[in-house]
Amino acid sequence: MRVLVTGGAGYIGSVVAHQLVDVGHDVTVLDDLSSGHADNVPAAAQFEQIALHNVAQVLTPAADFDAVLHFAAKIEVAESVAHPERFWDNNIRGTLALFDAARAAGTPRLVFSSTGSMYSGVPPFTEDSLVAPRNPYAVTKYSIDMMIEGECGRPGTPLGAAVLRYFNAAGAVRTPEGRWLTERHDPETHLIPILLQCAAGQRDSFTLYGTDYDTPDGTCVRDYIHVSDLAAAHLAALDNIRPGRYEVFNLGNGNGYTNREVVETVQQVTGQQFPVIEAARRPGDAIVSVAASNKAATALGWKPQRPDLADIVSDAWAAYRTLEP
Questions:
Q1: DSSP 8-class letter at 4
Q2: Tens digits of residue pLDDT in 195-214
């Protein structure tokens, strides 16, 4: 297939782009590099440094794309609370521009990078669990989900779509050229990279928020999935799309790890100890967030191949050490 990967210079998008190239797809990456990195783009892919709002310059009828895999989005929750207008503009308006271009071009397939953080209620979360977004970031993702459903329901449309709601992507992937594709956020807000910064001595300590929850050790529980497994699900979903059909798939390991377990695993893998400061709960933190991925297993034949947390952390640590100044 000829595929367009928006946000393909970012963490997850770049891993997917590399996997697409590896299996023989003709890949074009579109990214404005506001948070992505040009060196993440596969050498065999065409690269367009263009904002998502201007996607119609690339996604044209003449380009004859068979599919779009849509990763381009602002993702930091704290920023979305402080500046929600940035998320309405980038995530919502940008995706509307993508829909307009795809509709005009007659593009028949769409895979969308969504989030499991929109769920509420009792885990493990299925695709039918209560959706109650707690921040503007999650609101934009769910809004786009509903927009996609509407696009697929348009009479006579050729569009079929897979919406992938995943939980906590982590780990790293090494390319055939020996480069690591890993998390490189600035500022960093994700747990495992922050802990790796502590292990590397780039942070003086780690603050563990909330130690009195009703969980095995009193700390929050999260579902971590290796980014290579996550990418594989995108390729499986792409092959599964049918015209006019809208499908949602949750992607996770199905097993949760407490924050304290993650801290201990990072210390064990890296061989580095660092101060851990216990602090009060933060408002808005979900106590337990774990995915049920049975639908993906049944419909896509997908199952995580690298579910072990130590394995995930080991890859992230190997990649992180190549990024140290």
A1: E
A2: 999 999 999 999 999 999 99
